Amino acid sequence: MQRLFTGLQPSGALHIGNYFGALKPAVEMCREYDGLVMIADYHALTSLKNPDALRRNILGVVKDYMAAGLDPAHTILFKQSDVPEHTELAWIFQCLVTVPFLELSHAYKDKVAKGLEANAGLFAYPMLMAADILLYDTDVVPVGEDQRQHLEYAREAAAKFNNAFGETFKEPKEKILKSIAVVPGIDGKKMSKSYGNTIPLFATKDEIAKLVMSIITDSKAESPVNVYSIHALFRTREELSTLYTENKGKYKVLKEALIDDIEALIAPMRAKRDAISDEDAKRIIKEGGEKARERASKKIADVRTKVGVSV
Ligand code: ADP
Ligand code: TRP
Protein backbone atom coordinates (compact mmCIF):
# COMPACT_ATOMS: atom_id res chain seq x y z
CA MET A 1 0.00 0.00 0.00
CA GLN A 2 1.29 3.46 -0.89
CA ARG A 3 1.94 5.91 1.90
CA LEU A 4 0.03 9.17 2.19
CA PHE A 5 0.97 12.07 4.44
CA THR A 6 -0.89 15.30 4.94
CA GLY A 7 -1.03 18.06 7.51
CA LEU A 8 -3.14 20.95 8.63
CA GLN A 9 -2.33 23.89 10.88
CA PRO A 10 -4.60 24.19 13.92
CA SER A 11 -5.34 27.82 13.22
CA GLY A 12 -9.06 28.12 13.91
CA ALA A 13 -12.53 26.91 13.02
CA LEU A 14 -12.90 25.32 9.57
CA HIS A 15 -15.33 26.63 6.97
CA ILE A 16 -17.15 24.76 4.22
CA GLY A 17 -14.44 25.81 1.73
CA ASN A 18 -11.87 23.95 3.85
CA TYR A 19 -14.24 20.99 4.05
CA PHE A 20 -14.85 20.59 0.30
CA GLY A 21 -11.37 21.72 -0.73
CA ALA A 22 -9.22 19.85 1.77
CA LEU A 23 -10.84 17.84 4.55
CA LYS A 24 -13.30 15.71 2.58
CA PRO A 25 -10.94 14.74 -0.28
CA ALA A 26 -8.11 14.00 2.18
CA VAL A 27 -10.32 11.78 4.34
CA GLU A 28 -11.56 9.94 1.23
CA MET A 29 -8.01 9.40 -0.04
CA CYS A 30 -6.87 8.09 3.34
CA ARG A 31 -9.13 5.05 2.92
CA GLU A 32 -7.03 3.87 -0.04
CA TYR A 33 -3.62 4.49 1.51
CA ASP A 34 -1.41 3.81 4.47
CA GLY A 35 -2.12 7.29 5.75
CA LEU A 36 -0.75 9.73 8.30
CA VAL A 37 -2.58 12.95 9.09
CA MET A 38 -0.63 15.44 11.17
CA ILE A 39 -1.77 18.46 13.15
CA ALA A 40 1.01 20.96 12.49
CA ASP A 41 1.09 22.62 15.91
CA TYR A 42 4.73 23.75 15.66
CA HIS A 43 3.97 25.30 12.29
CA ALA A 44 1.04 27.13 13.90
CA LEU A 45 3.40 28.51 16.55
CA THR A 46 5.07 30.61 13.84
CA SER A 47 1.98 32.83 13.94
CA LEU A 48 -0.18 31.84 16.93
CA LYS A 49 1.11 32.93 20.34
CA ASN A 50 -1.99 32.19 22.41
CA PRO A 51 -1.64 28.90 24.35
CA ASP A 52 -5.34 28.54 25.16
CA ALA A 53 -6.33 29.10 21.54
CA LEU A 54 -3.69 26.65 20.33
CA ARG A 55 -4.87 23.95 22.76
CA ARG A 56 -8.49 24.48 21.74
CA ASN A 57 -7.64 24.47 18.03
CA ILE A 58 -5.64 21.23 18.29
CA LEU A 59 -8.54 19.35 19.89
CA GLY A 60 -10.88 21.02 17.41
CA VAL A 61 -8.92 19.66 14.43
CA VAL A 62 -9.01 16.12 15.87
CA LYS A 63 -12.79 16.37 16.20
CA ASP A 64 -13.14 17.89 12.71
CA TYR A 65 -11.30 14.99 11.09
CA MET A 66 -13.23 12.41 13.10
CA ALA A 67 -16.54 14.07 12.24
CA ALA A 68 -15.55 14.10 8.55
CA GLY A 69 -15.08 10.33 8.70
CA LEU A 70 -11.41 9.71 9.39
CA ASP A 71 -10.88 6.31 10.99
CA PRO A 72 -8.01 6.49 13.50
CA ALA A 73 -7.74 2.70 13.50
CA HIS A 74 -6.75 2.87 9.83
CA THR A 75 -5.12 6.30 9.53
CA ILE A 76 -2.59 7.62 12.05
CA LEU A 77 -3.85 10.95 13.39
CA PHE A 78 -1.20 12.72 15.47
CA LYS A 79 0.31 16.04 16.36
CA GLN A 80 3.72 17.21 15.26
CA SER A 81 5.00 18.16 18.71
CA ASP A 82 4.46 14.60 19.98
CA VAL A 83 7.12 13.36 17.56
CA PRO A 84 10.28 15.40 18.29
CA GLU A 85 12.03 13.67 15.38
CA HIS A 86 10.30 16.24 13.14
CA THR A 87 12.07 19.25 14.64
CA GLU A 88 15.30 17.28 14.85
CA LEU A 89 15.28 16.43 11.15
CA ALA A 90 14.21 19.98 10.29
CA TRP A 91 17.41 21.23 11.94
CA ILE A 92 19.51 18.86 9.87
CA PHE A 93 17.81 20.06 6.68
CA GLN A 94 18.34 23.68 7.70
CA CYS A 95 22.05 22.94 7.82
CA LEU A 96 21.91 21.72 4.22
CA VAL A 97 20.00 24.56 2.55
CA THR A 98 20.99 28.18 2.10
CA VAL A 99 19.28 31.40 3.14
CA PRO A 100 18.84 32.57 -0.49
CA PHE A 101 17.12 29.25 -1.26
CA LEU A 102 14.63 29.75 1.57
CA GLU A 103 14.16 33.37 0.54
CA LEU A 104 12.44 32.10 -2.62
CA SER A 105 9.42 30.92 -0.59
CA HIS A 106 6.19 32.55 -1.80
CA ALA A 107 4.38 31.61 1.39
CA TYR A 108 7.02 33.37 3.50
CA LYS A 109 6.97 36.50 1.35
CA ASP A 110 3.17 36.59 1.28
CA LYS A 111 2.84 36.18 5.03
CA VAL A 112 5.40 38.91 5.75
CA ALA A 113 3.71 41.18 3.18
CA LYS A 114 0.43 40.63 5.08
CA GLY A 115 2.09 41.91 8.25
CA LEU A 116 3.06 38.65 9.97
CA GLU A 117 6.24 38.84 12.00
CA ALA A 118 9.24 37.61 9.98
CA ASN A 119 10.41 35.22 12.71
CA ALA A 120 13.09 32.62 12.00
CA GLY A 121 10.56 29.81 12.44
CA LEU A 122 8.39 31.26 9.69
CA PHE A 123 11.48 31.51 7.49
CA ALA A 124 12.53 27.90 8.10
CA TYR A 125 8.93 26.64 7.82
CA PRO A 126 9.54 24.68 4.58
CA MET A 127 12.30 22.59 6.18
CA LEU A 128 10.03 21.54 9.04
CA MET A 129 7.39 20.60 6.49
CA ALA A 130 10.01 18.68 4.48
CA ALA A 131 10.93 16.78 7.65
CA ASP A 132 7.24 15.98 8.32
CA ILE A 133 6.86 14.40 4.93
CA LEU A 134 10.25 12.73 4.46
CA LEU A 135 10.43 10.99 7.84
CA TYR A 136 7.77 8.53 6.72
CA ASP A 137 8.94 7.58 3.19
CA THR A 138 5.83 9.29 1.88
CA ASP A 139 4.62 8.63 -1.67
CA VAL A 140 1.85 11.17 -1.95
CA VAL A 141 0.89 14.41 -0.21
CA PRO A 142 -2.65 15.72 -0.77
CA VAL A 143 -2.63 19.50 -0.35
CA GLY A 144 -4.14 22.66 -1.78
CA GLU A 145 -2.56 24.54 -4.66
CA ASP A 146 -0.98 26.99 -2.19
CA GLN A 147 1.27 24.22 -0.87
CA ARG A 148 2.82 23.22 -4.21
CA GLN A 149 6.09 25.04 -3.61
CA HIS A 150 6.45 23.44 -0.19
CA LEU A 151 6.48 20.05 -1.90
CA GLU A 152 9.25 21.27 -4.19
CA TYR A 153 11.19 22.27 -1.09
CA ALA A 154 10.65 18.81 0.38
CA ARG A 155 11.97 17.10 -2.76
CA GLU A 156 14.94 19.46 -2.80
CA ALA A 157 15.72 18.70 0.85
CA ALA A 158 15.57 14.96 0.10
CA ALA A 159 17.89 15.35 -2.89
CA LYS A 160 20.36 17.50 -0.96
CA PHE A 161 20.53 14.99 1.88
CA ASN A 162 20.81 12.00 -0.45
CA ASN A 163 23.64 13.70 -2.36
CA ALA A 164 25.54 14.58 0.76
CA PHE A 165 25.06 11.40 2.81
CA GLY A 166 23.79 8.66 0.49
CA GLU A 167 20.33 7.47 -0.56
CA THR A 168 18.02 7.92 2.45
CA PHE A 169 14.86 9.78 1.51
CA LYS A 170 12.19 9.09 -1.08
CA GLU A 171 11.08 12.10 -3.15
CA PRO A 172 7.34 12.58 -2.55
CA LYS A 173 4.70 13.72 -5.05
CA GLU A 174 2.01 16.27 -4.36
CA LYS A 175 -1.60 15.51 -5.15
CA ILE A 176 -3.16 18.90 -5.66
CA LEU A 177 -6.73 18.72 -4.47
CA LYS A 178 -8.84 20.42 -7.07
CA SER A 179 -11.80 18.11 -7.31
CA ILE A 180 -14.00 21.14 -7.11
CA ALA A 181 -13.30 24.73 -7.94
CA VAL A 182 -12.69 27.31 -5.30
CA VAL A 183 -15.67 27.51 -2.94
CA PRO A 184 -17.05 31.06 -2.96
CA GLY A 185 -17.92 32.92 0.22
CA ILE A 186 -21.12 34.81 1.05
CA ASP A 187 -19.84 37.81 -0.93
CA GLY A 188 -18.91 35.76 -4.03
CA LYS A 189 -15.14 36.06 -3.44
CA LYS A 190 -13.09 32.96 -2.49
CA MET A 191 -14.28 31.75 0.89
CA SER A 192 -11.45 32.47 3.30
CA LYS A 193 -11.14 33.21 6.98
CA SER A 194 -9.01 36.22 6.08
CA TYR A 195 -11.91 37.76 4.11
CA GLY A 196 -14.51 37.22 6.85
CA ASN A 197 -16.94 35.74 4.29
CA THR A 198 -17.12 32.16 5.50
CA ILE A 199 -19.85 29.71 6.41
CA PRO A 200 -18.29 27.80 9.32
CA LEU A 201 -18.48 24.03 8.98
CA PHE A 202 -19.70 23.45 12.51
CA ALA A 203 -21.90 26.44 13.14
CA THR A 204 -25.41 25.94 14.55
CA LYS A 205 -28.34 25.76 12.17
CA ASP A 206 -29.40 29.29 13.18
CA GLU A 207 -25.92 30.69 12.53
CA ILE A 208 -25.84 29.02 9.12
CA ALA A 209 -29.32 30.31 8.28
CA LYS A 210 -28.32 33.85 9.17
CA LEU A 211 -25.19 33.67 7.02
CA VAL A 212 -27.00 32.19 4.04
CA MET A 213 -29.68 34.87 4.28
CA SER A 214 -26.90 37.45 4.14
CA ILE A 215 -25.42 36.10 0.88
CA ILE A 216 -25.08 39.05 -1.43
CA THR A 217 -27.45 38.85 -4.41
CA ASP A 218 -27.85 41.10 -7.41
CA SER A 219 -31.48 42.25 -7.38
CA LYS A 220 -31.51 42.61 -11.18
CA ALA A 221 -30.35 39.07 -11.92
CA GLU A 222 -32.86 36.26 -12.53
CA SER A 223 -30.76 33.71 -10.70
CA PRO A 224 -28.74 34.58 -7.58
CA VAL A 225 -25.23 33.56 -8.68
CA ASN A 226 -23.65 33.62 -5.23
CA VAL A 227 -26.36 31.35 -3.81
CA TYR A 228 -26.20 29.03 -6.81
CA SER A 229 -22.43 28.54 -6.72
CA ILE A 230 -22.50 27.43 -3.09
CA HIS A 231 -25.57 25.29 -3.81
CA ALA A 232 -23.66 23.54 -6.61
CA LEU A 233 -21.55 21.81 -3.94
CA PHE A 234 -24.61 20.06 -2.59
CA ARG A 235 -26.73 19.17 -5.63
CA THR A 236 -26.35 18.13 -9.23
CA ARG A 237 -26.72 20.63 -12.04
CA GLU A 238 -30.00 18.98 -13.10
CA GLU A 239 -31.53 19.23 -9.64
CA LEU A 240 -30.49 22.84 -9.38
CA SER A 241 -31.76 23.67 -12.83
CA THR A 242 -35.26 22.50 -11.88
CA LEU A 243 -35.18 24.24 -8.52
CA TYR A 244 -33.85 27.53 -9.85
CA THR A 245 -36.22 27.58 -12.83
CA GLU A 246 -39.26 26.88 -10.67
CA ASN A 247 -38.24 29.60 -8.24
CA LYS A 248 -36.98 32.24 -10.59
CA GLY A 249 -36.58 35.54 -8.72
CA LYS A 250 -37.61 33.98 -5.36
CA TYR A 251 -34.33 34.50 -3.58
CA LYS A 252 -35.71 33.75 -0.15
CA VAL A 253 -37.06 30.34 -1.21
CA LEU A 254 -33.76 29.47 -2.89
CA LYS A 255 -31.78 30.51 0.15
CA GLU A 256 -34.04 28.41 2.39
CA ALA A 257 -33.45 25.43 0.12
CA LEU A 258 -29.70 26.00 0.44
CA ILE A 259 -29.97 26.19 4.24
CA ASP A 260 -31.77 22.82 4.27
CA ASP A 261 -29.13 21.26 2.04
CA ILE A 262 -26.24 22.56 4.13
CA GLU A 263 -27.98 21.39 7.29
CA ALA A 264 -28.60 17.91 5.82
CA LEU A 265 -24.85 17.50 5.31
CA ILE A 266 -23.69 19.09 8.52
CA ALA A 267 -26.25 17.83 11.06
CA PRO A 268 -24.93 14.24 11.21
CA MET A 269 -21.32 15.44 11.26
CA ARG A 270 -22.14 17.96 13.99
CA ALA A 271 -23.76 15.22 16.08
CA LYS A 272 -20.72 13.01 15.62
CA ARG A 273 -18.40 15.89 16.56
CA ASP A 274 -20.40 16.78 19.67
CA ALA A 275 -20.17 13.17 20.83
CA ILE A 276 -16.35 13.32 20.92
CA SER A 277 -15.12 14.62 24.26
CA ASP A 278 -11.85 16.47 24.77
CA GLU A 279 -10.62 13.35 26.58
CA ASP A 280 -11.44 11.17 23.56
CA ALA A 281 -9.63 13.59 21.27
CA LYS A 282 -6.57 13.61 23.54
CA ARG A 283 -6.48 9.82 23.66
CA ILE A 284 -6.76 9.55 19.87
CA ILE A 285 -3.80 11.83 19.19
CA LYS A 286 -1.74 10.32 22.00
CA GLU A 287 -2.14 6.87 20.46
CA GLY A 288 -1.51 8.27 16.99
CA GLY A 289 1.63 10.00 18.24
CA GLU A 290 2.99 6.74 19.63
CA LYS A 291 2.46 4.96 16.33
CA ALA A 292 4.00 7.80 14.31
CA ARG A 293 6.97 8.02 16.65
CA GLU A 294 7.71 4.33 16.28
CA ARG A 295 8.12 4.84 12.54
CA ALA A 296 9.94 8.17 12.79
CA SER A 297 12.49 6.91 15.30
CA LYS A 298 13.67 4.19 12.91
CA LYS A 299 14.26 6.72 10.17
CA ILE A 300 16.03 9.21 12.41
CA ALA A 301 18.39 6.51 13.71
CA ASP A 302 19.56 5.98 10.14
CA VAL A 303 19.88 9.76 9.63
CA ARG A 304 21.94 10.20 12.81
CA THR A 305 24.33 7.47 11.72
CA LYS A 306 24.67 8.92 8.24
CA VAL A 307 25.40 12.50 9.36
CA GLY A 308 27.85 11.28 12.00
CA VAL A 309 26.26 12.29 15.29
CA SER A 310 25.78 8.66 16.34
CA VAL A 311 29.23 7.60 17.51
P1 ADP B 1 -8.26 30.20 4.56
O1 ADP B 1 -8.17 30.75 3.14
O2 ADP B 1 -9.64 30.29 5.09
O3 ADP B 1 -7.21 30.80 5.47
P2 ADP B 1 -6.54 27.90 4.61
O4 ADP B 1 -5.51 28.59 3.80
O5 ADP B 1 -6.28 27.62 6.06
O6 ADP B 1 -7.94 28.67 4.45
O7 ADP B 1 -6.96 26.57 3.87
C1 ADP B 1 -6.70 25.25 4.27
C2 ADP B 1 -7.00 24.38 3.06
O8 ADP B 1 -8.41 24.48 2.71
C3 ADP B 1 -6.23 24.88 1.82
O9 ADP B 1 -5.09 24.11 1.58
C4 ADP B 1 -7.22 24.79 0.67
O10 ADP B 1 -6.96 23.62 -0.08
C5 ADP B 1 -8.59 24.63 1.31
N1 ADP B 1 -9.43 25.82 1.03
C6 ADP B 1 -9.45 26.99 1.71
N2 ADP B 1 -10.38 27.82 1.22
C7 ADP B 1 -10.97 27.19 0.19
C8 ADP B 1 -12.02 27.54 -0.74
N3 ADP B 1 -12.66 28.70 -0.67
N4 ADP B 1 -12.35 26.62 -1.67
C9 ADP B 1 -11.73 25.42 -1.73
N5 ADP B 1 -10.75 25.03 -0.90
C10 ADP B 1 -10.36 25.89 0.06
N1 TRP C 1 1.81 23.90 5.49
C1 TRP C 1 0.55 23.20 5.51
C2 TRP C 1 -0.59 24.23 5.48
O1 TRP C 1 -0.44 25.34 5.96
C3 TRP C 1 0.42 22.32 6.73
C4 TRP C 1 1.46 21.25 6.76
C5 TRP C 1 2.50 21.15 7.64
C6 TRP C 1 1.55 20.13 5.89
N2 TRP C 1 3.23 20.02 7.38
C7 TRP C 1 2.69 19.39 6.32
C8 TRP C 1 0.78 19.69 4.80
C9 TRP C 1 3.09 18.23 5.66
C10 TRP C 1 1.18 18.53 4.14
C11 TRP C 1 2.32 17.81 4.56
O2 TRP C 1 -1.67 23.91 5.01
UniProtKB/TrEMBL annotation:
Catalytic reactions on record? tRNA(Trp) + L-tryptophan + ATP = L-tryptophyl-tRNA(Trp) + AMP + diphosphate + H(+)
UniProt-listed CDD domains: TrpRS_core (cd00806)
Q: Which NCBIfam families match?
A: trpS (TIGR00233)
From the Swiss-Prot or TrEMBL record, give the protein name.
Tryptophan--tRNA ligase
Fetch the PANTHER family from UniProt.
TRYPTOPHAN--TRNA LIGASE, MITOCHONDRIAL (PTHR43766)
MF terms per GO, please?
ATP binding; tryptophan-tRNA ligase activity
List, alphabetically, the GO terms of the cellular component aspect. cytosol
Keyword check for Heme, yes or no. Answer: no
Checking Gene3D superfamilies in the record gives: HUPs (3.40.50.620), Tyrosyl-Transfer RNA Synthetase (1.10.240.10)
Its family remark reads: Belongs to the class-I aminoacyl-tRNA synthetase family.
Which keywords has UniProt assigned to this entry?
A: Aminoacyl-tRNA synthetase, ATP-binding, Ligase, Nucleotide-binding, Protein biosynthesis
Output the InterPro entries linked to this UniProt entry. Answer: aa-tRNA-synth_I_CS, aa-tRNA-synth_Ic, Rossmann-like_a/b/a_fold, Trp-tRNA-ligase, Trp-tRNA_synthetase
Going by the record, the broad EC class of this enzyme is: ligase
Q: Which Pfam families match?
A: tRNA-synt_1b
Organism, by scientific name, is Candidatus Kaiserbacteria bacterium RIFCSPLOWO2_01_FULL_54_20
Report the EC code(s) recorded for this entry: 6.1.1.2
According to its UniProt entry, one GO biological process term is: tryptophanyl-tRNA aminoacylation
The answer to whether UniProt assigns keyword Protein biosynthesis to this entry is yes
